[in-house]
Specification:
single chain, alpha+beta, five-stranded antiparallel β-sheet, 15 helices
Length: 448
């Protein structure tokens, strides 16, 4: 009676199959032909629409405009500080005290105070452009946030309409070397840890940057609807990034569909609340300059486009993680139905929601920290701060993005559970092959 059950003959197939599941670190197991057709029926038209949208809205470059010489809209060249000498601030009138000596105004008093101490008189040489080799003098006050030193690389602004002695001025320091080194360290770290996946992640990052700089920004400047451009560009980035990093599989396709649904929800909520809250999108000097140079741009639409693009990166992380979790749960127990997979996956997702939402809020708060400090100095109430358009934009951006992130967890989890539980690649299936020896093994252990 017991000898057939203790016969070791069935063990090799069982061990071989178990080994395949235990070490399946490669691509996900293929789904059935029917499911592949269903996924393709959804994604192929979507990808085709994205390509058509890219072609239809392709801008062909940034439109020209007459430079204003204000803010970032200035002609700039590289320069180098060749000499720095200390001089008395009063001798060079560094703070531009009024000739009348009037100190009755705050600006006049500040200017008089700025005359005290030693200033730095820097001789700067232009190193690029038509005026290469030309030198000019820059006076730096002792309390200035940016001090110059000999041999330092700088960025100089050129104002062609100004008097010759005032045409050039130092506008910033040259940070190319440390920034390039930091980027190289980042790339090496990603490749060292991620291996081939890391390489593909960097390629996807380059593609994302190309779509942003070659399509999204120029198309908006050309006058195209910012929301439409952002949806097309974000979709292109999503398809390229997910399939490059995770392979062309059903698992990735489910993550793509979950991300797309969440992006649509973010777009709808963002459009509703940006309009309802009367957010113009024109809240600081930079947006004011953009509106002045290109008055046809829909600034509120630009704000909504920023919400969509800003949410995409975190959405990719959430949807891929949830899809992978459901797939791994199915690999661990192929007999689990879609409801069981969903319940197990959503428990993982709840932890993910808590951490990701907190990360998103803190990221926006960190970016707006100087602004929050200003409100704190002014001793404004929380209600007053939240009601100001500058802060309200960040609140709407954060909450709409967070709602999309929260919704992406159950949406992606249920999609992945339905797809993977319907997996029937062929007969006999891997699930049935795994299940029979497992039951026999358990029965054998119970009898033992």
């Amino acid at each position: 009676m017991t000898s057939p059950q203790s016969d070791p003959a069935p063990q090799p197939p069982h061990q071989s199959h178990t080994h395949g599941h235990t070490h399946s670190h490669g691509p996900a197991a293929p789904v059935s032909k029917h499911l592949r057709k269903v996924i393709a029926a959804v994604l192929i038209p979507f990808a085709t629409a994205v390509v058509v949208g890219l072609i239809a809205f392709w801008p062909g470059g940034v439109p020209d405009h007459e430079r204003t010489g204000v803010g970032f809209d200035r002609q700039t060249q590289d320069g180098k500080v060749v000499q720095v000498v200390k001089v008395d601030c009063a001798d060079v009138n560094a703070s531009q005290v009024p000739p009348t000596g009037d100190t009755s105004t705050p600006s006049g008093r500040e200017a008089l105070n700025g005359q005290e101490g030693e200033c730095a008189k820097a001789t700067v040489e232009v190193t690029t452009g038509a005026d290469k080799g030309r030198q000019f003098v820059e006076v730096v006050q002792p309390d200035a946030p940016r001090q110059l030193r000999e041999g330092q690389g700088v960025v100089v602004a050129y104002a062609p309409d100004a008097p010759r002695d005032l045409q050039y001025s130092v506008t910033d320091v040259n940070r190319r070397i440390p920034m390039t080194l930091l980027a190289a360290i980042f790339a090496l770290a990603v490749v060292a840890v991620g291996r081939m996946r890391g390489v593909m992640a960097l390629v996807a990052l380059a593609v994302s940057f190309a779509v942003l700089t070659l399509f999204i920004l120029p198309a908006i400047l050309q006058g195209s609807n910012p929301l439409v451009v952002a949806v097309i560009g974000a979709s292109a980035i999503m398809l390229a990034a997910l399939y490059m990093c995770h392979g062309v599989t059903a698992r990735t396709s489910v993550a793509v569909v979950g991300t797309l649904i969440s992006l649509l929800l973010i777009g709808l909520l963002g459009s509703l609340f940006i309009g309802w809250a009367n957010l113009s999108g024109n809240t600081d000097d930079n947006t004011g300059l953009i509106h002045g140079l290109y008055p046809d741009i829909d600034m509120s639409g630009l704000l909504l486009a920023g919400v969509i693009i800003g949410s995409l990166g975190v959405l990719d992380d959430v949807t891929v993680t949830q899809t992978s979790a459901v797939w791994e749960l199915h690999q661990a127990d192929p007999r689990m139905g879609w409801r069981g997979l969903y319940r197990a996956g959503i428990r993982i997702g709840r932890d993910h929601i808590a951490s990701v939402v907190n990360t998103l809020v803190l990221a926006y708060a960190g970016a707006a920290l100087p602004l929050l400090l200003l409100f704190s100095i002014a001793q404004s109430s929380v209600g007053t701060v939240a009601n100001s358009e500058l802060v309200a934009e960040e609140i709407v951006r954060t909450l709409v993005g967070s709602i999309g992130l929260v919704a992406s967890v159950p949406v992606t989890t249920v999609l992945a559970a339905l797809v993977v539980s319907a997996d029937r690649p062929g007969a006999p299936t891997s699930s049935s092959t795994a299940a029979t020896p497992a039951r026999t093994g358990r029965g054998r252990r119970r009898k033992a």
